[in-house]
Specification:
The chain has helices spanning 12-22, 39-58, 72-75, 79-85, 111-121, 166-186, 233-238, 262-271, 297-316, 331-341, 351-356, 380-405, 413-422, 433-443, and strands at residues 26-28, 35-37, 62-64, 69-71, 91-95, 98-106, 130-139, 153-163, 192-196, 208-215, 221-229, 241-243, 249-251, 253-260, 288-292, 321-323, 345-349, 358-363, 372-376, 407-409, 424-428, 446-451, 459-460, 467-468, 471-475. The chain folds into three domains: 12-271, BirA Bifunctional Protein, domain 2, CATH 3.30.930; 288-393, 3-Layer(aba) Sandwich (Rossmann fold), CATH 3.40.50.800; 407-475, C-terminal domain of ProRS (Translation Initiation Factor IF3, 2-Layer Sandwich), CATH 3.30.110.30. It is of the alpha+beta class and 478 residues long.
């Protein structure tokens, strides 16, 4: 494999595939379509987990674990659900050397398992709401796979809740989308568009699907998290009922919501450059890498104690720091290696820096001289914390500016076709399901979402010429 990445502008797909491997995030598994998440990639996922988990718990949700095997008959109880997932199911027919009485589906999602459990656990309105979240992996037998973005097995969280009323379920569906939006913007520095999916794009078995849509560095869209109001569909399929305060039997209202390791792909494609990853400081496994520089044992004995002291100061300030003491590699190689891995801030400390009581700080988001400065070692931890905040804000602003510049408001089909070549088309929409399918067939663009923030009023639909009262975002997607 070449030491250099292909330019993003020359071949974005090849740039991405190579970067995932060279940055040591993941590798290909031995079974087609599977992925090995390496320690550096898993550390990034752990930070994503922690950022989400504290938000889930702050909204009253608790974690649980459910089996990975689902009786095949469960999948058939909700007609739209089985229809939507059947092409992607992995099915176990033998176990313990014998054919099973009933085939088992390897979990593609857990709504059916949850429905079965809820039907046993919920009896009275006093049992509601039930607010669960699971951290697990799921299997969907994908035809075309891409590390992190679309693999046959992937890791995620899936929330599942049961409520007494439609209003409570609607609140939950929107609340969790807002949680995803807050995480994406404030922790991942990924600007997203919260919106509603069209009926064609809705989750199989849901009455309503909300989504956060992000623009990648090549102008394509990535569905980055979804929240579903399942109505009473699964409650009726699994007989999830409760006695209300009037002693009347009612069906529950349920929701589900999920965000997966594909969000790592979003971080890579939104922030990365031709030198490699650029990780947002709040999620980066190492927020700072320190490279001690010395030529001989005398310089080493002067530099390393200072580097260790600085490291301890940073750790005490709550900063995740890595000191690179690999003896067999040059400082230049280390700089390039950590640039590839996207560490937000690099500290260089050499003999002159020790003498002058300074350190060199280099920002990953501004390679070269533009991002480098010499600062006093006094109060260095606070200086670094401030710089990390600056990098975090700069990444969000750069990504937002890129998205906005490539979101084109168009009012005719010709301009639409041009817009989706490089970004999003923002249009007034009054088309039918058949119209939406026709647009996709002709342009390969899908209706990404109907933004939750709408301008109001009405205009003419760009495609049908009919009166339209909603704005839609279309784009080509991963």
């Amino acid at each position: 494999m070449s030491d250099k990445l292909v330019s993003r502008s020359d071949d974005f797909n090849e740039w991405y595939n190579t970067l995932v491997l060279k940055a040591d995030l993941a590798d290909y598994g031995p079974v087609r379509g599977t992925m090995i998440v390496k320690p550096y990639g898993w550390a990034l996922w752990e930070n994503i987990q922690q950022a989400l988990d504290r938000r889930f718990k702050a909204t009253g949700h608790v974690n649980a674990a459910f089996p990975m095997f689902i009786p095949h008959s469960f999948m058939e109880r909700e007609s739209k659900h089985v229809e939507g997932f059947s092409p992607q199911l992995a099915v176990v027919t033998h176990g313990g050397g014998q054919e099973l009485e009933e085939p088992l589906v390897v979990r593609p999602t857990s709504e059916t398992l949850i429905g079965h459990a809820f039907s046993k656990w919920i009896n009275s309105y006093r049992d509601l709401p039930v607010l669960l979240n699971l951290w697990n992996s799921v299997v969907r037998w994908e035809l075309r796979t891409k590390l992190f973005l679309r693999t046959s097995e992937f890791y995620w969280q899936e929330g599942h809740t049961a409520h007494a009323t439609l209003e409570e379920a609607e609140f939950e569906t929107r609340q969790m989308l807002d949680v995803y939006t807050d995480f994406a913007v404030n922790d991942a520095a990924v600007p997203v568009i919260p919106g509603e999916k069209s009926p064609l794009e809705r989750f199989a078995g849901a009455d309503r699907t909300l989504t956060i849509e992000a623009m990648m560095g090549d102008g394509r869209a990535l569905q980055s998290g979804t929240s579903h109001n399942l109505g009473q569909n699964f409650a009726k399929a699994f007989d999830i009922k409760y006695l209300d305060a009037n002693n009347s039997l009612q069906y529950c209202w349920t929701t589900s919501w999920g965000l997966s390791t594909r969000f790592i792909g979003a971080i890579i494609m939104v922030h990365g450059d031709d030198q490699g990853l650029i990780l947002p400081p709040r999620l980066a496994p190492h927020q700072v890498v320190m490279v001690p520089i010395y030529k001989n044992d005398t310089e080493k004995s002067a530099v390393l104690p200072v580097a260790e002291r600085i490291k301890q100061e940073l750790v005490e300030a709550g900063i995740r720091v890595k000191v690179d003491q690999r003896e067999h590699l040059s400082p230049g190689f280390k700089f390039n290696d950590w640039e590839m891995r996207g560490v937000p801030v690099r500290i260089e400390i050499g003999p002159k820096d020790v003498t002058n009581n300074v350190a060199a700080l280099a920002r990953r988001d501004k390679p070269g001289r533009e991002g480098k400065q010499f600062v006093s070692q006094e109060g260095l931890a606070q200086t670094v914390k401030g710089l990390l905040d600056t990098v975090q804000e700069a990444l969000l602003e750069r990504a937002r500016r890129f998205r906005d510049e490539r979101t084109y408001t168009v009012d005719n089909y010709d301009d639409f076709k041009e817009a989706i070549k490089t970004g999003f088309a923002k249009v007034w929409w009054a088309g039918s399901d058949a119209d939406e399918q026709q647009v996709q067939a002709e342009t390969k663009a899908t209706l990404r979402c109907l933004p939750l923030e709408q301008p109001g009023g009405s205009e003419v639909c760009f495609y049908t010429g009919k009166p339209a009262d909603r704005i839609a975002i279309f784009g080509r997607a991963y």
